[in-house]
Amino acid sequence: MKKIKVRTSTSYDIYIERGLTKNCGDIIANIVKTRKIAVISDNIVDKLYYDTIETSLQKNGFTVSKFVFPAGEASKSIETLNQIYTFLCENNITRSDCIIALGGGVVGDITGFAAATFLRGIDYIQIPTTLLAQIDSSVGGKTAIDLPCGKNLVGAFKQPKCVICDSNVLSTLSDEIMSDGMAEAIKYGMIRDAELFELIASHKLENVNEIIDDIVYKSISIKRDVVENDEFDTGERMILNFGHTIGHAIESYYNYQTYTHGSAVAIGMCMITEKGCEKNVLDKLINCVNAYNLPHYCNAPISELLKLCANDKKRESNYINYILCKKIGQASIHKVCITEFEKFILN
Amino acid sequence: MKKIKVRTSTSYDIYIERGLTKNCGDIIANIVKTRKIAVISDNIVDKLYYDTIETSLQKNGFTVSKFVFPAGEASKSIETLNQIYTFLCENNITRSDCIIALGGGVVGDITGFAAATFLRGIDYIQIPTTLLAQIDSSVGGKTAIDLPCGKNLVGAFKQPKCVICDSNVLSTLSDEIMSDGMAEAIKYGMIRDAELFELIASHKLENVNEIIDDIVYKSISIKRDVVENDEFDTGERMILNFGHTIGHAIESYYNYQTYTHGSAVAIGMCMITEKGCEKNVLDKLINCVNAYNLPHYCNAPISELLKLCANDKKRESNYINYILCKKIGQASIHKVCITEFEKFILN
């Protein structure tokens, strides 16, 4: 079993091993004092993995209750959050008990936020079941829900007690969901690790399973390094936004329908690289995203995307930060005023 | 002008002076960089003080928007919170802007929680307009909303950028609301400051205005000292719960209708003092609470109150903490299992 230690305001370990969900109870019993656990999941993941998890938890003496909501981004709402709070109340979850987030990014984000705020904060554990959740959203302590006026507009920083990554669960994912996660893996290679990039670029979606353990381990390690240096997202952590400035605008322009997060990030990475980097970097990047069925351009008018970048609710004052990787494996942050960013993109 | 510095994870000042609301803009302009502010208030306080505050803010170059909800505990709900989020979105409040909580405990608690979670945390300022809010809820960074199954069950720790206390605003309070706050002032005397207790005990509700500035300053100082030593409520901060273990049970038994928070705390202080302290301490305490129109007993069956103490959702595992002041000005924390607490009370 591999273990990655995350040293943030509260430290924790990420455990990585094939088949680990079957033994999750053994790990959790060593980490929490309580023997009462509430599992939050969505209806798809619940059917696939809840029984395995429950069995392992019960074998370790845990009393387990569960709350399941419909899969999909629409559930990452204040309404679902309210239902989770009610469930936690009805099951008498106290400050000394623990919640498990069993699922992808939506489950992890909303469960983490419930854990951050119920009784002003109780312990939670991440068992991420998509590639995107394993290498991105379950690591780093960002939790959130969406509002009708935008994604992730309400949230908190709350580190989990541990993260349990079982790459076996990735085998049940559709090609589209797998591609979605690969965009973030490619991003990690681009911003910090040329070797990881080359490894990914030398494979494709059809045979990525051969190297997926390596990808998960290396991606998480990079995210861990960045998050440890900037837990509360005030500086270096921004390099994780490579491809995301324009990517978020693309998702928003298409009302989160046409492109997955990963597809939008892939396009965003290619667009910003086209503007600010040499052609050989761009060519390598385009070949790589295409090998994972990810797009490298879209037809949204650039002027509309720029408007959405400027209106980003999470932006500060009149400045925008964008990330460039002039060499593969090396990212830099560029803080410019919005008009300068527009000139850069329209150039 | 008096100033009390609070050294918590983020430090801030509490400004105390009669008439300060008229000049709040001058103070705030020195503390925040933004010139865009959203004020959250209730319909009663809005009518009394919003215009004064707006004028002072505008004079200092601020653009001000406001959201007003119906006064009362029923508004401290997830529904009002959702309305506040929508208001903040619609007014394009960004991470670099600021929110003001203008009102009593309900306004302060829900506004603080909105500030703690909107965009994962933006700045907020407290302008408390009740005695209870000035000496208790606005200091210490506890924010919360209620759930149908209990009060303050969802929340976060979030320190304000500053607190602005103007004791002139207390003159518009009804006797009942004033008494409500005096219970907490008496509590501060009991747990930490025999002199403050004597000062309060030598006056009564009718002439408390003569010493109210002193009471506010000393009470806040005590709360500041306690909070600085235990910001996240894992130890010493529990002494602030003197009278609250039973007080909360009384509020809950009467469905938060019959007794105000302060009245319930007054009864709670007297009940626990009767059980664990000498008669001269109890007599002094009873005389003091009575001088401020606060009750010292109620008719709720003790067995029912004990059940509610045991079911307190915010309690940890099988233990309960209660606070005793064997000498006026000196509090001690007693952690016992629930059955032992029952024996102590029924004795």
Structure in words:
2 copies of one chain form a homodimer. The first copy, chain A, is an alpha/beta fold and 347 residues long. The first copy, chain A, is built from 13 helices and 11 strands. Chain A folds into 2 domains: 171 residues, Rossmann fold (3-Layer(aba) Sandwich); 172 residues, Dehydroquinate synthase-like - alpha domain (Dehydroquinate synthase-like, alpha domain, Up-down Bundle). In chain A, 46% of the residues lie in helices and 20% in strands. In chain A, a hairpin with a 5-residue loop joins strand 1 and strand 2. In chain A, helix 5 packs parallel to helix 6, helix 5 runs parallel beside helix 8 and helix 6 packs across helix 8. The longest helix of chain A is centred in the middle third of the chain and has 18 residues. Chain A is globular. The model of chain A has no long low-confidence stretch (mean pLDDT 95). The interface between A and B is large, with 36 and 35 residues.
